[in-house]
């Protein structure tokens, strides 16, 4: 079911969702950078292996991907709203009356 929001409420929700997405991307990038580059910068003979993969690869590419897929689903469920981006009929009529 889509919510009927005013223009101001729609803009506020869009801004909130954009900020959440940006923050999640930055956090994911930091996760990838710390686990991938930070743990992967030593000599390969010193790596710890998990299921035949170096731990830095496992954490940065596999665990991080799964973790942030779950985090994205949770964020969408609890913070995002399903609403119509189109103007409502009342808003169109109000805009028309303001012009005339």
TrEMBL record:
InterPro entries: DUF997
Residues that span the membrane, as ranges: 20-41, 53-80
Keyword entries, A-Z: Membrane, Transmembrane, Transmembrane helix
Domain of life: Bacteria
Entry protein name: YhdT family protein
Lineage of origin: Bacteria, Bacillati, Bacillota, Bacilli, Bacillales
